[in-house]
Structure formats: C-alpha cells, structure tokens
Amino acid sequence: MKKNNKKKLKINRRELLAGTASFGAIALTTKVVNSQETNPNNLPPNVPEWTAELGAGVDANPYGMPSEFEKNVIRRNVEWLTASTESSVNFTPIQDLEGIVTPNGLCFERHHGGVSIINPKDYRLMINGLVDREMIFTLDDLKRFPQTNKFYFLECAANGGMEWKGSQLNGCQYTFGMVHNVQYTGVKLSDLILETGLKPKAKWVLAEGSDSSGMTRSIPIEKILDDCMIAWAMNGEALRSEQGYPARLVVPGWEGNMWVKWLRRLEFGDLPYMTREETSKYTDLLPNGKARMFTWVMDAKSVVTSPSPEKAIFKKGVHQLRGLAWSGRGKIKRVDVSLDGGKNWKTAKLHDPVLSKSLARFTLPFEWNGQELLVQSRAIDETNYVQPTIQELQKLRGVNSIYHNNSIATWKVNKDGTVDNVRLG
Amino acid sequence: MFDLVRKLTIFFLMIAISTILHASERKFNLGKIATKTEIAGWNIDVRPDGMGAPIGSGNAIDGEEVYAEQCASCHGDFGEGLDRWPELVGGEDSLDTHDPVKTTGSYWPYASTMYDYIYRAMPFGVAQSLTHDETYRVVAYLLYMNEIIEEDFVLNEKNIGKIKMPNIEGFLLPDPRPDIANLNGKPCMKNCVSPTKIIGKARDIDVTPEDEKS
Fold first, then answer.
1. What is the DSSP pairing of strand A346-347 with strand A229-234?
2. Domain range list for chain A
3. Cβ contact (<8 Å) for B184 and A384?
4. Does residue B14 carry a pLDDT above 80?
5. Given CB atoms, is A5 within the 8 Å cutoff of chain B?
6. What's chain A's average pLDDT?
7. Residue B104's closest chain A neighbor by CA?
8. What residue spans of chain B are helical by DSSP H?
9. Domain assignment of residue B123, given as a range
C-alpha cells in the first residue's frame, strides 16, 4: 500500500515537473477530492508524503494562490436574485475568514454593468463644475499627491435586505456577506481640490463611474472634505478590476453604492443631482408609502461568523465563538453575545486593532454539550448606539425598506450541531 | 462722459483683480486644465431643474418605435418587465401596500433622472448609444404610458425640468437615523425580555443555493 502510494506520487511529480498545465490541473483535482478524507499514512508515526518529496520551486507560483484545500472559500451569488450576472452581487465568505482583513480576491462584488477592464494608461479623472480650474488627472498624477493609508469597511446598503420579513437565506455568507474590509491607499479629496480650487457655492459632488452603468451618486461637500479619498490600491496591491481598477472613490462609513468604482469624474455643484441610484434605488420605503432619501451612514452591526449555518459544531466541549462588528459612525466599543436568544448576554473579547469605520474582530469561548443554542451578537459603537432587534426596526420602518437592515440575527445550534438561520418572535 | 468711462474702467479692473485674488493658486502643479470639448463629452448628467439637459426633443408617438426596438425585449411591450428586469409602468397607489411596485410612474420623483439614466446606462450593454432625440422620445413614451403627459407632448431640454412627477412629494429628508431607542450604550445584560419562540426558519423557505453545505 505504502509503496503504491509512493509510485503514484512520483508520477504526479514528474507530470508537474514536465510543466504541462493539463497534467498539473488533473493532479490538483485528484488531490482536492482526496482532501475530504484523512489519510492514515500521513499521520504519526508514519512519514507524511509531503516530507518524503520535494515541494514546488520558487518559480512555480509567481502570484501565489490559496492552498488547494481551501477551494470552498469563495464568493458566492444567489442566481434568482437578479436578471443578469452583470448587474448583480456576490457575497464575501466571512464565515471562513479570520482577523479583520478581507483578502482582495474574496471582497464581495456589486456591479451594475459588469466589470470594466481599464488600461491605466487610458485612465483619466475629470473634475468640473464649481471649481476654480476644471482639470484632468492621470493615474500617475494622482499618485504624486500626498498619500493616505486607511482601513475601512465597505458594506452594501442592501446587506441583509432579504431578511426583513423573515429568515430567508440559510447562510452567514448570504445574509451578512455584502461587506469587506481592506486597507486603502490613495489621495484625500481635500488634498486633490487644493489643485482645482473650490467655488464657495459648491455644496454637492457628483461622483461618476466609467463602467457600462455610468454609476453616479451625489455626495455632500462636508463628507467629501472630511474623509473621502480616491484609492488606487487595496491591501498593498493595485485595486482588483472587480473593485474599480485603476481608481475608486472611498466614502468611509457610508453605503457601498456611493464608493463609485472606475471613477472618471467629479462634478461640483450647488444642488444634489438626484441620480437613479439615489431616487429609485437606495431610498428606504416606509409603511405609509413615503421613502427616506439620502440614508447614507451604515449603522452599527455585528454577526457571529462561527458557529453559523455554514459552520456546524462537530464536537462537544470547548469552542471559540468568532464574529465581526462594525459601525459607520466610528469605532466599535463593545460586543455582547447571547447563547439563549437574547435573555442573557456576555461581553466578548475585542481584538486589536479596533479602528474607526473598520471591521472589528471579536471572540468568546463557550462550552457545547449537545444542547440547543440561540446564538446572537449585539454591537455597541463609540456613539453608544446599540444594535437593534429586527422587531424594533420593523416597528420603525416596516418590512419593505430593503436597505439598512442592521438588526441582530439568530443562529440556532441544533442538537446534532448543525446550525440554522431562524427568526424569533 | 470721460469721467464715467474712467470710473467704470477702474470699477471693472477692481472686480477683475479681486477675482484673481480670490481664485486659489495651484498647490502641486499636477494634472492639466480640461478643455471645453473634453468636458462636453463626459459631462452628461441632467439635474432635476434641467441643468445639463442637451438640446433635443421628442414625443411619445415617435418614442413608441424607439422603445419597441431598444427597450421592450427586457422591459416588455407595455413596460411590465420581463423575467426579473424592472417594471417601468404602473404601480400607482401601491407604495403603501404589502407589495409596492416602484416604477418610473409610481416612484421616480424626477423626469430628469429618467433622461440621465437612460442616456448614460441604457440599453443595457450598449450604453450611451442613443441619440439625444431618441432619448427624449423614449422618456416621453414612458411618461405617456404612465399617464403623466399627452402622446403629442414634445419633451425637450427646456421643459424636462418642469415635468411634475406623481411621487414628487414621496421622499423624506433629512435622514432621521439614529431612529432606534437605545442610544445610551447600556443594554440589558441579565434576564432580559426577549422573544425566544422560533417563528421562521430559512431552511424551510428553501431558496438558499445548494453549494451552501460544502
């Protein structure tokens, strides 16, 4: 048995060394299938197969990818949600991530006209309207301005939007995954406008993308001058195309739709522009038929990422509950966790760093002995805002407002350790 | 007479000087000044008051043909929306019901937004391919289908900012949030009153994509 294994491995290795892509792919697929089971030959006291062989050389992966055993850690979409994948959304697998940084390839995507592919040499940012000088900047120009590096979360205003009426999607990823958190590198708009000057009448900025949807949003000048930036890098490397390469707007703490990707133009004006995305969409319909408009800030929110519908508990004994919390109003101050559906709460440990308008990581150890649990988390931010229940939000806003559902979710841990997204009432 | 000319000249000179003094200096000498032609090509937005509306015109009668060719394959012959593509017509008196239907007629507060969005983003995948006249025609057709204008009403850059949309009073400003009760940072920790009866399960709704279990 052992001998056979060795022989097979040698063949695989020769195939890999031969360097043909198809052979490499076959070897990879076989291994992934096998990865579901433990191979006793690799366990003590045996010498594992990867010890008896050389591994791949430094030229094998010029741009490294995650281990082949992590193939299930991917963005996922819900096909029935939208008419086409080009105007649609997928979700970050937050249940599989640790710490506060979202890897670039896992940041959820929301496009309205697909992913634009832009040669940075052809990139131009136009600034027009109520400025002293209407100007055009290249990407290289932008990179010569004073630089800023900041961690911020980006959350779609519709994150959890399917859960207003009841528990609908049985997954942490599908109900909370329209959020990501990366470190942005770019130029603050307050620095950029030192070049163009600003007319006193300028009160609003129209941000416009160059994608096929020509995404546009109006942003008040106070926010633009406070902390908005144009980013060209995320987590240390150039923006991914899905996130607006080569440059996007960053609007810290405010709904993701305003963070215009593939940014091509900023127009300064004296009134809001009332674009499609701030009138027919991203307005919050109330039971009386009126809709809230310009609901920009993302209120405090948290979620337990494990245990969760994708993260069942398999063994009795001690476990580490993990979760994420964030607030568009500043820093997370505290996160409480309940295992009995909100009757009793314990304060979780918040891990460094806890940054303003960034995801924060919390953990809490707990014992599980096969009993049913109703797991909840509740965030409190530095403004003392306490994350509400769904009942409170429904009382205030009904069930048809789609956006800004920041309520507490409930995961039910069943006796067999599986986990369900449930609604309490 | 001479005196007046001299006074006027000094007056205008002073205005010119004060304007120059007021205008800011460039700080980094980066980027270039945009030309009028460059701006005109990209400055396509249209505001509720009609600012930015390009010269052009069209009525619903002509709009029907443009709509049938360019829009109906997704939005349906009568704006009813095919598959999951958006409905564009109808939905009046539905916003305060359990099943609100948000269309250009029932929900959109400004006709300018229709022009702006259709010109910049439609037809889906062929953005900015309609002429200005074609765009005015399609907007006129949708306004007519929603019973907002007559079929021979000629929509143009001068009147698009004056169209009264049915839901113009439907939006609330400013944002009243934080609208929740607990803003003191001190929620209940022990023996709290809280609903613990399970009234719904996502598993029972059964609309979660299958790969979920992997």
1. unpaired
2. 2-70, 104-292, 301-422
3. yes
4. no
5. no
6. 93
7. A280
8. 2-22, 36-42, 60-70, 72-75, 111-121, 132-145, 202-205
9. 41-159
Provide the residue type at A373 as one letter.
L
Q: Residue A27: pLDDT above 80?
A: no
Which of A175, A179, A94 lies closest to B208, judged by CA? Answer: A175
Shortest Cα distance from A80 to chain B (angstroms)? Answer: 9
- Whether B90 is in a domain gets the answer yes
Do A104-292 and A301-422 fold alike per CATH?
no
* Residue B15 is assigned to a structural domain of this protein: no
**SS3 category, A2:** helix
Q: Does domain A301-422 have CATH number 2.60.40.650?
A: yes
Q: What's the CATH architecture for A104-292?
A: Alpha-Beta Complex (3.90)
Contact: B83, A83; criterion CB under 8 Å: yes
Long-range contacts of A73-82 (CB under 8 A, 24+ apart): A73/A97, A73/A106, A74/A106, A75/A106, A75/A108, A75/A109, A76/A173, A76/A174, A76/A177, A76/B209, A76/B211, A76/B212, A77/B209, A78/A169, A78/A174, A78/B207, A78/B208, A78/B209, A79/B209, A80/B84, A80/B207, A81/A162, A82/B84
A271 touches chain B (CB under 8 A): yes
CATH at B86: 1.10.760.10
Indicate yes or no: CB of B199 within 8 angstroms of CB of A424: yes
Looking at CA atoms only, how far is residue A420 from chain B in angstroms?
A: 7
Tell me: the pLDDT tens digits for A71-81? Answer: 999 999 999 99
Token representation of residue B77: 């012959």
Q: Could you tell me if residue B27 is inside a domain?
A: no
Q: Is residue B36 part of a domain?
A: no
How confident is residue B147, by pLDDT bands cut at 50, 70 and 90?
A: very high
Instruction: Please state the domain count of chain B.
Output: 1
Is the confidence at residue B94, as pLDDT, over 90? yes
- Contacts of residue B51 in chain A, CB cutoff 8 Å? 269
pLDDT of residue A152: 98
> Which one of A83, A288, A424 has the shortest CB-CB distance to B196?
A424
pLDDT, tens only, A125-166: 999 999 999 999 999 999 999 999 999 999 999 999 999 999
pLDDT digits (tens, 9 = 90+) for B60-79: 999 999 999 999 999 999 99
Q: How many CB atoms lie within 10 A of CB B139?
A: 28
| Residue in the structure block whose two tokens are 């289908």 | B145
Across the A:B interface, residue pairs with CB atoms under 8 Å apart total 280
Check CB contact under 8 Å for B44 and A288: no
Contact A329, A124 (CB under 8 A): no
B21: contact with A, CB 8 A cutoff: no
